[in-house]
Structure formats: structure tokens, C-alpha cells
Known about the structure:
By secondary structure, the chain is mainly alpha-helical.
Amino acid sequence: MNISCIILDFTTTWLCKEKIGMNKYLANAFGVILGTFSFIKLNYTKVTIAPAAAFCIIILLFNSIILFVLHSNKRFLFYTAKSLILAATLIVYIMLLSSQIFS
Length: 103
């Protein structure tokens, strides 16, 4: 996973949430979509828009549900929860990459 995609995700989320005043979960959605889509386009240039969009939606659902559960009970701060989810998302990316390598 490119570090630029992670930076894009967190920066977009931060800008939307802190500077624009957007709802934190909506801001997270924008960050996740931009980060995931840029990851796909940077690493899989031959992927068409439909599979890329489907993958972004799956990652967004995964990310949003876990973020809501971790943050809604005030167990974790918003960005701490988002960082934990990033670790889980990296596992999904590694599984995706390994399936591409070994297929």
C-alpha cells in the first residue's frame, strides 16, 4: 500500500472534519473513498471503474461499521479508531495483493 494513499485518506478526513465542519463519519467516507480509489488506480492501472467502485464500497462499509463501533462507545478517540481500522484495512490489501501475486 502506498503511503500516499494513507496520507490522502487521513488528510481528506481531517480537512473535511476539522476545517469544513463536516460530520465525522461523512468526512471519513470521503477520505476512505479517495484513499482506496487512488490505491487501486496507482497499483492496478488496468482495472476498470466498476470493480474499483465495488472495492471502494466494500472497504468503505468495512471501515465505517468498525469506526462507528469503536468510536460510538467512546472507547477510542476518532483518529485512534481510524488508525486501528487502517491496520485492519492493510490486512485486506495484503490479502488482495497476495491473491494477485499467486493467481
